[in-house]
Amino acid sequence: MRFSVRLDATLQRLIRAAHPLVGYCLALFWAGTTASAQPAETLWIPAPLARFDWQLSEPFDLKHPVDVLDLDLFEAIPQDIAQLKAQGVRLVCYINAGAWEDWREDAKDFPPQILGKSYEGWEGERWLDIRAINSLKPILEARFDLCRDKGFDAVEPDNIDGYDNNTGFPLTAVDQVRFNRWLAQMAHDRGLSIALKNTPDLLPQLIDSFDWALAEDCLNQNWCQALTPMVQAGKAVFAVEYTDQIPDQSSAWLNACNRAKSLGIAALLKDRKLSSFVKRCK
After folding, report:
1. In this structure, are residues 141 and 186 in contact, taking their beta carbons and an 8 Å threshold?
2. 145 bridge partner residues
3. CATH 3.90.226.10 for the 9-280 domain, yes or no
4. What global pTM score does this model have?
5. What residue segments make up the domains of the chain, in order of their start?
6. CA 240 from chain center: how many Å?
7. Model confidence pLDDT, tens digit, residues 103-137
8. How distant is the alpha carbon of residue 246 from its chain centre?
């Protein structure tokens, strides 16, 4: 569950087009100095309880005091990435790995036969047949390459739990584990750490492949404790809760913070569209 930016895609492309040399030289500079030749043993991995934020829609605020910032792969501007990294902020790229989005610049590259049912509640999205790794390989490899080349430090692949949804394909847990491990290998091959996103039931099979975790609504839905093995392994877990379920300034948020602290995870409150609003536990 997330909100993907569409309104500003044209504007962002115009900015990139207006300053191609500056923007992409900066991106290549940061890629060359931080990620592209980085061996797996020196991957940057977020620290437990780091100040994490996740922004996918305007109004953006890139001046928040933050340690780790998660931005959309395609919409992130190289100049912004370079400036943030110069300030010591680590960057995570959001990539929709398990669903197709009709507004993406590479949407036409997906073979029609691997597009499944519409993703309920998210207009313009359809589930992918993750068993078709040979078809997905050049598309997702290009996305992971772009993540590295723009200077990101980590990747957050979304919708990596299709096996547990009505995708239109007979996906199994075995299919999902295979796909997710493939994503993790792609990330590590490019010097990127990778987040396990919303897939608690497969954690025993995936914990060794993934470097940290991002969970949505796990405090509200009472499943954060399933991520305890990540905490015990010294890996960061960021729990994103939403104001449409836990209102700001409410006792429910205070209770959620207390539970997060008891579990050793970092909790933050966001609006469902993932704008710049953020509230962390005190």
Report:
1. yes
2. none
3. no
4. 0.86
5. 9-280
6. 12
7. 999 999 999 999 999 999 899 999 999 999 999 99
8. 22
